[in-house]
Amino acid sequence: MASDSAIDKILAGKYPAKKHADNVARYIRDAHPEIVDGLIYLESTKSALLEDNDSEAPFRQRRYFYYLSGCDLPDSYLTYSLGTSTLTLYIPPINPADVLWSGLPLSVEEARAKYDVDTVALSSPNLHADLSAFAAKSSPSGPIFAITGQVSDDIPHVVQGSLHTKILKKAIEDCRAIKDDYEVALIRKANLITALAHHKAMATVKKAGNERELEAVFTERCIANGAPKQAYHGIYGSGRAAATLHYVHNNQPLKGKLNLLLDAGAEYKNYASDVTRTFPISGTFSKESREIYELVLVMQKATMAESKAGTSWDHVHTVAHKVAIEGLLKLGILKGGTPEEIISARTSCAFLPHGLGHLLGMDTHDSGGNPNYKDEDPMFRYLRKRGVLRVGEVITVEPGLYFCEFIIRPYLEDPKHSKYIDKDVLDKYWDVGGVRIEDNILITENGYENLTTTAKEVEDMYKLING
Question: In the prediction, which pLDDT does 141 show?
Answer without folding.
Answer: 67
